[in-house]
Specification:
408 residues, 14 helices, globular, 83% helix, mainly alpha
Length: 408
Amino acid sequence: MLIAAIKLGDIAARSLFLLIALYTLPARASGQFGLALTLIALFAFFSGFERYLDLQRSLVGKSPPEVNKLILATLRFFAVGHLLWLTPLALLLHYWAQLDRLAVLLWSVIAVCEHLSTEAYRVALISSRHRWILLAGLIKNLLLMVVAAVFAMRGQALELEQLLWTWTAFALLAAIASAAMLRTLSAQGPNGEASALVSLRTQLRQSRTHFMIGLVALTSLQIDRLMAGGFLSLEETGLYFRHVFVAAAAYQAFGVVSHNRIMHRLYGHLQAQRRAEAMLLIRSERRRYLALSLAVIAAAFLTETQWAANISALDSITPAVLIILLLAYTVRGVADYNAMVLNATYRERSIFRAQSITVLVVLALGAALTPSFGIAGLVAATLMGASVYACLTWMFVSRTAASPLCKL
């Protein structure tokens, strides 16, 4: 529960920081900022190669020396990934997001630090000894939020370069603090025998299937943002990101509160063959998630219709666009419980098929609607994609007649 609380605070601070930046930067700079965020998310994925999934399963029940070895081997894997993908990231930031060389350099540092911060959280979900590393990320994002909020409250214009320098400085300090804590933890505990470091080739092989599934899953989540950058001007892209990041922040926060919080218990129930308990857990959490999401949608509607006129930062928000995006992410969040069941019971191929079809649907609809209808067409494609994903995952779970979890 402590880990969930720390991460929830971290997400809240980071989301507020990003939203303040998106709403206070000029429209063009906001488009560059949002597109850069999308590109560093892709960088993190390709550098990480979805190693965390196999690492989380491997950490369960391991002694401290074994945990240390697994983490060290994974960090070496990430370092190779960073070296491979920093150049493509820099080229995309420069030529697509139209950023100068200094901004590209700063974004590159931010990308590496943010990726390692995310991976620390994923380790802490299984290895509670490492939960205090999350405090470095939380403090960093709180400071960024405060700095951005001070500028916003003073009515001062926020410049992209100034924002990137601040983020880079805090990210480096958090990375140094995290490294120090990791080193301290590695030196603590019993000095039992541990196996040799897992080779890079072995890690690549172990995560290959998860990478392919994750690639399609990431694409299904990011395809609308990439299409915004491809079909819309930077100014229009900035407006779209202002909407979608609100919905995405709610989706991410609910994932921590619900999905990630129950993951360990769900896997434990299934490994111990306690399928009835797993069924009750999924059903209960799905109801809570849906109720919370609908409450957020209602709050967004109330804010836009009753109070938006008094809040200048909300002038660029279109109520229909925001509410439809929130609904799309709600549908996807509910469907993620089906994906959890499929993944926990080693039915990754079904998730892969569902994600692949979803990407094709969003790509086809987005390419057809966005050039003619702009942001409205892209939003419609996003909602349709989420609905297709929900239907497919539900169907795949229901078809698993041999499993007691088929009625989840």
